[in-house]
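Per your request, structure below.
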């Protein structure tokens, strides 16, 4: 008994585990369902955090603290103008100009008059009305330069106001809004690529394992049995591989049992043939002596029938022994050039006394020209003997046997014919099956074809050589 290896271990039950194909597939399906409702919002949240962080970094690293820093500083400067005279405010504004050299600034007193434009600005009116102030504020929102208006006094509650106009490039870090968009797109693309890659790897892995199993099925040993496969993973395909290995093991066991039974049968037939031959020979000898004794006509007839049956049994034993040797590969054939016409004529001559005794009309039509076949002379002789014997046993009631050379399928063909009731009719004789099996085996071994045409009017057996591609004509 062979020990069971890992590839023949018991199959585990399929469970919803990541190691099983079912579990892996469900994980991929779950990832597909969660991609839009989870991954997209997660990417948006990440994008918002990145944008907020970028904006904070930009503000903290910008000149003058960015827009928010400039706004708070300017309001603080305006609050410090509480109680100062116009001249002091002008001086303070000049000092602020030194602090913010890129900016332009001015202030408007309580009477609406423009004071201290640093530098002079053409779009600033000399006298302000409420309508002009409102239009100026609306026009400055979100524009470049960045404009901050602050009323003078504590809590910026005065009627006078001061204005600073700073070019946005002076307070910008150079990072435009939406600078995190490429990262957002990259994140979504990477997540989608990971999902696609997982799917492709999953199905590629399954395909490779199935192709390996298919390749194993195509590999066969000398008996046509596939080779077993090694089970690497215990999942659904592993169960299929285990079942395949079980089938291969059953085929091998069946093949081994069949080979052992065939060998036993051949040995039994060979032993029986040898064991039966000795008593049969003794029986034939005693029957021959009985025929020499003075017997009544009925006695002589009985001895003649027994002698005929003994001869038939001897031929059957010979055929069984020969067929056993052939199928076991111990029947040696020597192929040589044989004149089949001459061999058929000699064989017919040796059978002629028996045909005449059986009352058969003999019709031999063989040409004088040679017809050379490559074959074993003894094997060809045995084929003809078996065909002639079948006619004597099973078609003697037709009273005819013919041997001729004809053309069939464009090739010369040796024909053995009779006028019996055909192969499908019942016959009291036995042994025809073994005889024809021997004919077929020898014909195939020597590159010949046996073709039979049978009807109620008789049977014709054709023997001819195969074509160059190894096929006969049918």
């Amino acid at each position: 008994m062979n020990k069971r290896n890992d590839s023949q271990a018991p199959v585990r039950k399929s469970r919803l585990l990541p190691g099983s194909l079912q579990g892996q597939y469900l994980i991929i399906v779950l990832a597909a369902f969660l991609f839009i409702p989870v991954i997209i919002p997660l990417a948006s949240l990440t994008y918002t955090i990145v944008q907020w962080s970028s904006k904070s970094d930009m503000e903290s690293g910008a000149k003058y603290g960015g827009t928010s820093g400039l706004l708070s500083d300017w309001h603080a400067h305006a609050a410090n103008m509480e109680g100062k005279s116009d001249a002091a405010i002008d001086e303070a504004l000049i000092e602020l100009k030194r602090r913010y050299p890129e900016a332009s600034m001015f202030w408007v007193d309580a009477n609406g008059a423009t004071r201290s434009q640093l530098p002079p600005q053409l779009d600033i009116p000399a006298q302000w009305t409420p309508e002009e102030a409102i239009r100026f504020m609306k026009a400055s929102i979100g524009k470049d330069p960045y404009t901050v208006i602050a009323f003078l006094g504590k809590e910026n509650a005065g009627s006078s106001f001061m204005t600073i106009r700073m070019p946005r490039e002076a307070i910008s870090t150079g990072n435009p809004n939406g600078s995190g968009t490429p990262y957002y797109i990259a994140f979504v693309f990477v997540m989608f690529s990971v999902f696609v890659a997982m799917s492709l790897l999953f199905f590629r892995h399954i395909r490779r394992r199935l192709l390996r199993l298919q390749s194993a099925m195509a590999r066969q040993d000398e008996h046509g049995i596939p080779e077993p496969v090694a089970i690497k993973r215990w999942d659904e395909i592993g169960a299929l591989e285990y079942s395949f290995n079980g089938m291969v093991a059953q085929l091998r066991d069946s093949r081994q049992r069949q080979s052992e039974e065939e060998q036993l049968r051949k040995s039994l037939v060979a032993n029986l043939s040898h064991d039966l031959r000795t008593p049969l020979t003794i029986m034939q000898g005693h029957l021959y002596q009985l025929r020499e004794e003075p017997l009544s006509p009925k006695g002589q007839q009985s001895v003649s029938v027994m002698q005929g049956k003994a001869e038939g049994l001897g031929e059957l034993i010979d055929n069984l022994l020969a067929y056993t040797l052939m199928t076991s590969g111990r029947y040696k054939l020597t192929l040589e050039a044989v004149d089949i016409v001459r061999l058929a004529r000699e064989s017919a001559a040796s059978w002629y006394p028996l045909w005449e005794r059986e009352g058969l009309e003999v019709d031999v039509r063989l040409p004088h020209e040679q017809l050379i076949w490559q074959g074993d002379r003894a094997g060809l002789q045995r084929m003809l003997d078996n065909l002639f014997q079948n006619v004597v046993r099973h078609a003697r009631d037709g009273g005819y046997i013919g041997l001729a050379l004809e053309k069939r399928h464009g090739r010369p063909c040796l024909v053995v014919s009779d006028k019996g009731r055909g192969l499908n009719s019942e016959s009291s004789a036995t042994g025809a099956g073994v005889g024809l099996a021997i004919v077929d085996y020898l014909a195939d071994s020597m590159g010949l074809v046996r073709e039979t045409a049978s009807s109620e009017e008789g049977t014709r057996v054709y023997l001819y050589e195969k074509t160059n591609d190894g096929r006969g004509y049918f």
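The chain is about 55% helix and 15% strand.

Regards,
D.
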